Automatic annotation (TrEMBL), chain A:
Coiled coil: 41-116
Cellular location(s): Cell membrane; Endomembrane system
Keyword Coiled coil: yes
Primary residence: membrane
Name assigned to this protein: ATP synthase subunit b
Organism: Marinobacter guineae
One GO cellular component term: plasma membrane
Name of the gene this protein is made from: atpF
Keywords: ATP synthesis, Cell membrane, CF(0), Coiled coil, Hydrogen ion transport, Ion transport, Membrane, Transmembrane, Transmembrane helix, Transport
TrEMBL record, chain B:
NCBIfam families: ATP_synt_6_or_A, PRK05815.2-3
Record's subcellular location: Cell membrane; Membrane
UniProt keyword annotations, A-Z: ATP synthesis, Cell membrane, CF(0), Hydrogen ion transport, Ion transport, Membrane, Transmembrane, Transmembrane helix, Transport
Entry's Gene Ontology molecular function annotations: proton-transporting ATP synthase activity, rotational mechanism
The name this protein goes by in its record: ATP synthase subunit a
Taxonomic path: Bacteria, Pseudomonadati, Pseudomonadota, Gammaproteobacteria, Pseudomonadales
Main localization category: membrane
Pfam families attached to this UniProt entry: ATP-synt_A (PF00119)
GO biological process, one term: proton motive force-driven plasma membrane ATP synthesis
Database matches in HAMAP family: ATP_synth_a_bact
Gene Ontology CC entries for this record: plasma membrane; proton-transporting ATP synthase complex
Transmembrane stretches, start-end: 78-101, 107-127, 165-187, 193-214
Family (UniProt): Belongs to the ATPase A chain family.
Amino acid sequence: MSIDWVTVAAQIGNFLVLVWLLKRFLYKPILNGIDAREAEIATQMGEAEVAQKKAAAAEAEFLEQKQRLLADNSAHAERIREQAEEEKDALLAATREKLEREKQDWQAHLEAEREAFIRQLHLASADTLYQLVRRALRDLADEDLEEHIALNVIGKLKPLAEELTSAAGRAEQAIATTHSPLPENTQEKMRAALERLAPGLSLSFTTDARQAPGLILRIGSVQVAWTIDSYTDELVGLLTERLAAGGSGRVNNHG
Amino acid sequence: MEMTPDETTLFTVWGVGINETVGYTWIVMILLTVASMVITRNLRPDVPPNRWRTTLEVIVTAIQSQIEEISPRASRHVLYFSGTLFLFIAFSNLLLVVPGFTPPTASLSTTAALALSVLIAVPLFGITRQGIGGYLKTYVQPSVVMLPFNIISEFSRGISLAIRLYGNVMSGAVIAGILLSIAPFFFPVVMDVLGLLTGLIQAYIFAILATVYISSATATVGKPLHKEKDK
């Protein structure tokens, strides 16, 4: 066991060289690499922290927006509900109005039909009544209804002779309108009667199917009439009343 | 029986004989340097570390953490010095398993050279940290009476380091030589395994003791120092 001092010196030199070499190629690169990586990690951590803060801020903003949206939605839904309510009310009102209008139309139509029916009834009644009375008179008393009507009119004219004369003025023509043509002898009787009341006044006869049975005499602007309208009106009134009583189940005794 | 590789000449350069100790030291140096160069050549922060780089990082950071445990205020120069001691000794001892390779640490000249390096490095680190006056004051602490004892202690550290390392490495070689003559087919394997273990332990002990000596020389009472970085 001996120490070779030359070798010792060489080994000291070798060791120092190795220290330098390892410092140059091992420690510095490794430690600097670690430092750089730590710095990068620190930077990334900082960036991550910033990103986390941003994410938290974004989350808060998102939640706020969500809340706002929910509130908006509620308000919107409330507004829509109110609008729907208003629209429903409007539709209901329009429907009611339409129904009312249709009801009025229907009532008007009903009224028109009723009036038409009454008018037809009136005409039919008048005609029936006229025919019945005429036949009754002929069968029972051998009398002519038209003649009696004409005579009745002449009878009514007598108290009005002065009024007729003044009203007729310069009129030279009198017109007698009947529902059906009068017999010739009845016409002659009426002409004779009128000649006595208003001399010089000629009388002509016309017929009008739309007119109620009876006679209407026109002298200038004066008109004297005798028709069975009033009787017909009474008959129609009675019939209507009876029909109404029958429809409602009531029995009204008119004597 | 050959007991020291200093006496065996490996090759001759310009008439100067290079013995096994120096020759194998160069091999260890070349291997360590080339391996470091290869592993650290593409070292960028954005490139993830590979297996070898991670191994080196683990070794270096382990050495660094050991040094910081002993001396929290140690500079990187201590890492360079003590780390190189550990790596050189450990690598030399691990190469014991290579047939025909004689570890340089099996030479008393090498261990003496390393011990001398520590012996020189300790006051240098102390002077660097505390200045000449501050360092010399440590020899008269706690009183002037202690001056000779401190000087003896300083030298005995180096001698004990050298003898310990040499003794352990050399004892392994001697025991292996003896057992090889008794049971040539079985004992060498066991002894080699044992040699690897003791070699690593010796490397660790040598480096740790060197660090302890340096840290005791660089410690300044009542004056905290910041960790030094490389300039």
